[in-house]
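Data deposition worksheet. Section B asks for the primary sequence of the deposited chain exactly as it was used as input, without tags or linkers unless they were present during the calculation. Section C holds the resulting structure in token form. Section D is free text for depositor observations; keep each observation to a single sentence. Incomplete worksheets are returned to the depositor.
Section A, Depositor: J.P.
Section B:
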Amino acid sequence: MSRISNGQLVIAFLACRLSSEMITIPGEMVSYGFDRFAAILFAKLIAALLYLPVIFITLKFKGDSVITAAFRRNRAFGITAGIIMSVLLSATAVQTVLSVQRYVTDTLLNNIVTTSGIAVITASAVYGAVKGLSAVTRSSVFAAAVFGLLIFLIGVTMWDKVEPDYLYFSFINDRSHFLKTLISEISMNSEILIFAVITDELRSKPYKTVIYYLPILLILMEFLNMLYNLILGPYMTKVEYPLYIIASLSDIVLFQRLDGIDAIVWLMCGIIKAALLIYCIGRIYTVCSNKPHTTLAVAVSGFLIFMLCVILGSDAGVYERMTKIMNSGIHILIGGVVVPLVVLIAGRAKQRGRVKKNDENI
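Section C:
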């Protein structure tokens, strides 16, 4: 098994989270004003707490992932935890693939057939998952470089369109809207599900990934939100993909418009996220079956996700309902908090049982 560094995983997580920001951002989050600045800050503080159960498991079981720790506790218990996590990862993968397909249709290829788009995206993700975790994280580095170039070119071409008057401080008046924004922001941190499965594939202590990742993500998200406010101002509530619109307004000699680069970046990041999710499903099979990582397990997972995408993607109403469920953050709560806490408590109970048995033998 090829292990990766914390830095590689941080970059991969940033690609995952930013793809959610650009592709699956819920409508209520595209809000002009101070509310989302505060929501991003509070969401990252809450996210830090949500990562704690997984971190405690890695500290208690010497770097083991949630699934590995559960399987070592009891085979049936590990398989049950693996099934729950696989369902949550599959649901997130389906949402990711459908969102990427919708994004591509809205920006790059208006006439693409839905099934064809889903097939290409899923096949690309499965290919990345088969190549392994190291290959996917290396792709993330390339995507990060292109994203940096995109932001630089936007800065060069759009500086004269910045309106400082658009940025102003205000108190949060609509608490209901703020709460929806906060929950949506938290629900987009599906990286915690990936983190729960692959911590035993890190070279260094897993908690370092969270220490590096969350502050960098906070800065990036606040910067992007500031960019939306400074350039689009009150008009940002009328667009679905803010950064894509900003890129489309650019005018540079080499690239008449940057929206093509923007769309390609988020297509890459979406595929990287889907690849990580599919890889994690294959990883769960590897742990629960006690067999080496197999291409067949990943391929089967990819095929099932493809079929689910075709079925769910054929009905816009079903897609919208699924998106609302995912935006509630229920998958984060179950996979990132409930399952790790149950595994942690079960492990502690087993340890106490061993201590008690040793005392009786003495």
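Section D:
The first helix runs from residue 6 to 23.
The two ends are 41 Å apart (CA to CA).
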